[in-house]
Task: inverse folding
């Protein structure tokens, strides 16, 4: 009881501060985060946690499009991440002796993930809820098993190693800039190979993704998704082409995952099938649910909490490390159960969803009852 | 004045049940045509077929002379038929304004990329759509003013939810508006208000096909009335003609044991 009252107080305090203030504060904190490391207050390991967390923020933003906005449960989302990661890894590593330009690979990774989205979306989007979840789950496993077994292409379980770091400009361009007198210290930033550089690279992608998705959310496209989520029959009767709108959400979210996968491959240097387990798909779903479906700030918080917190605990666990690994999923499960009980709308929900779960005005309820009564009265009228 | 809608020998069955049987009628421009009939007589099914939710077994449906039979619901909406539902179907977790804006989906055209970048053209379209949606909501004076427009639809009173559904259907400025029991569940005062609003819509030039059980409303607004029973049209004409038609009286008597049709 004491705890729940404390949470209540905390909530009422936090909710008095306008959302915009929180957004600016969060953005600023994320923007200066690496400086703590530069200034020596924070170990580099934490900066690395930051990079991976941001990658998962991207994934959650992408999954939220299909799950939060369009209301389609996708349990194989990590497969699109895998497609992006392997595209980049195979075309920028010693495996085939290739080093395609960074920007080209970024686009290609996103595009191939989108094609995968199209392939899985086209035949399955006519299915409803539970069936869709099962089919996407199977799709995720098929992609992972294919990667594991396609040894000649992917090295199977050993994975692809030695992925080259991204160059923001081609080597030729960098050389000629240097020749024309640019300082080497400045040009070093064009080759992304330090955690801080990765951090800012992913940070920029996250900001751009959040901006684009938030625009989309508040447009006729986003409204069409929401309408389909709320009531498909009413949506199609209001002129929305269900198949097209749903496919669009699946393809777009796949594209975001592909992009995230590409950056992740560069950053981790090595990728193998074990990064793309079913459990990872579930974790991204949890991030979206924990943060608050349909809410961009919520989803960002959800991803950071679920990705960073376990890492930070592990980093500080020292000798207890392996123990913690064992309990990680258990803690996850407990957290989600607690959420469903205490705050089903998520940590930072979309405004409207919160209202539905909690703030039902008793007067409105009374009105509803009144109307129900009127229904009966109406029929008596007819018969009288 | 031409016919906005023409149903030609339309039939629709579910398994062995003929829900609508060889139904023909037409709706003239700027009139209010009401369909009455006992429960289960095929009225809602007729609406579902017209609006593209079901494909008719046979017959044709012409909207302003062009066939819309067999089109998908979104295509039918785009051509100019929009509707409300007997069992209210709003987008509960969306705002009042957004519900109306969804109704304008086929009347706006921003593409994905343009919307993502929120290009000036998208901003203009969005602003115009909002203004239009507010104008539509203003047809229900005092019901959806100011801050209420950003309330979620589920929080509205029952009568307001019915009104909002009509507003959503009106947002696309349809050539034909289908209303399925618009005053169902309303108290007498509320139904009188909605009745006036339906008449107001006619004076604004709308053409309306309405299913209604409340005979006062039917009498009050209809230019013509059609009666159905067991999927078949049993009478057509003015309210007085249909209400006194012996087949209609029998249909209601048979269904309800006692009472009258008017
Ligand atoms: N989707 C459906 N599947 C099977 N039977 C249906 C379906 N829709 C309606 N019916 C049947 O068709 C008949 C007409 O129903 P309906 O059009 O809803 O009647 P009304 O609107 O006149 O009350 C009823 O017998 C009903 O049970
Ligand atoms: Mg009906």
Result:
């Amino acid at each position: 009881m004491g705890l729940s009252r404390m949470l209540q107080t905390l909530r009422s305090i936090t909710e008095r501060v306008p959302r915009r203030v929180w957004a600016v504060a969060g953005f600023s904190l994320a923007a200066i985060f690496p400086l703590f490391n530069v200034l020596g207050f924070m170990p580099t390991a934490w900066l690395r946690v930051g990079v991976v967390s941001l990658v998962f923020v991207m994934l959650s933003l992408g999954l939220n499009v299909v799950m939060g906005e369009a209301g389609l449960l996708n349990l194989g989302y990590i497969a699109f991440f895998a497609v992006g990661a392997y595209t980049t890894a195979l075309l920028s590593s010693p495996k085939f002796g290739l080093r395609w330009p960074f920007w080209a690979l970024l686009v290609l990774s996103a595009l191939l993930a989108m094609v995968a989205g199209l392939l899985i979306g086209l035949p399955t989007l006519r299915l409803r809820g539970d069936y869709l979840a099962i089919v996407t789950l199977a799709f995720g496993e098929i992609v992972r098993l294919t990667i594991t077994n396609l040894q000649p292409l992917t090295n199977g379980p050993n994975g692809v190693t030695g992925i080259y770091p991204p160059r923001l400009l081609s080597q030729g361009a960098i050389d000629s800039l240097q020749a024309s007198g640019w300082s080497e210290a400045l040009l070093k930033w064009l080759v992304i190979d330090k955690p801080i550089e990765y951090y800012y690279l992913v940070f920029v992608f996250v900001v751009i993704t959040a901006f684009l998705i938030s625009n989309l959310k508040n447009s006729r496209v986003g409204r069409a998704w929401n309408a389909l989520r709320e009531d498909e029959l009413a949506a199609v009767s209001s002129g929305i082409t269900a198949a097209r709108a749903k496919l669009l959400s699946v393809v777009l979210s796949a594209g975001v995952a592909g992009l995230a996968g590409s950056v992740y491959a560069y950053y981790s240097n090595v990728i193998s099938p074990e990064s793309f387990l079913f459990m990872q798909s579930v974790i991204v779903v949890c991030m979206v649910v924990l943060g608050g479906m349909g809410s961009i700030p919520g989803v960002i918080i959800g991803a950071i909490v679920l990705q960073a917190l376990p890492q930070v605990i592990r980093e500080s666990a020292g000798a207890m490390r392996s123990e913690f690994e064992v309990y990680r999923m258990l803690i996850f499960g407990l957290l989600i159960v607690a959420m469903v009980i205490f705050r089903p709308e998520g940590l930072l929900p979309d405004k409207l969803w919160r209202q539905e779960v909690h703030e039902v005005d008793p007067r409105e309820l009374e009105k509803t009852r009144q109307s129900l009564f009127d229904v009966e009265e109406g029929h008596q009228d007819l018969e009288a | 004045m031409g016919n906005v809608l023409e149903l030609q020998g339309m039939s629709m069955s579910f398994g062995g049940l003929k829900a609508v049987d060889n139904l023909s009628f037409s709706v003239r421009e700027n009139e209010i045509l009401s369909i009455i009939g006992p429960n289960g007589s095929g009225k809602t099914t007729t609406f579902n077929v017209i609006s593209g939710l079901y494909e008719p077994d046979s017959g044709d449906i012409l909207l302003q002379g062009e066939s819309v039979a067999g089109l998908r619901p979104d295509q039918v909406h785009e051509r100019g038929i929009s509707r409300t539902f007997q069992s209210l179907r709003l987008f509960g977790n969306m705002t009042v304004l957004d519900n109306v804006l969804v109704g304008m989906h086929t009347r706006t055209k921003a593409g994905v990329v343009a919307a993502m970048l929120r290009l000036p053209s998208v901003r203009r379209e969005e602003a115009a759509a909002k203004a239009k949606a507010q104008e539509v909501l203003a047809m229900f004076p005092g019901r959806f003013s100011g801050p209420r427009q950003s309330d979620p639809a589920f929080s509205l009173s029952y009568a307001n939810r019915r009104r909002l559904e009509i507003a959503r259907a009106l947002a696309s400025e349809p050539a034909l508006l289908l209303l399925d029991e618009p005053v169902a569940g309303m108290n007498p005062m509320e139904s009188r208000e909605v009745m006036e609003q339906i008449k107001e819509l006619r004076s604004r030039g709308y053409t309306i096909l309405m299913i209604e059980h409340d005979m006062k409303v039917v009498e009050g607004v209809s230019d013509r009335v059609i009666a159905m029973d067991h999927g078949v049209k049993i009478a057509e004409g003015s309210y007085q003609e249909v209400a006194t038609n012996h087949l209609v009286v029998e249909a209601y008597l048979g269904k309800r044991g006692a009472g009258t049709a008017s």
In short: The mean pLDDT of chain B is 92. Chain B touches chain A through 57 residues (CB under 8 Å). Residues B 43-44, 86 surround magnesium ion (ligand 2) (CB under 6 Å).
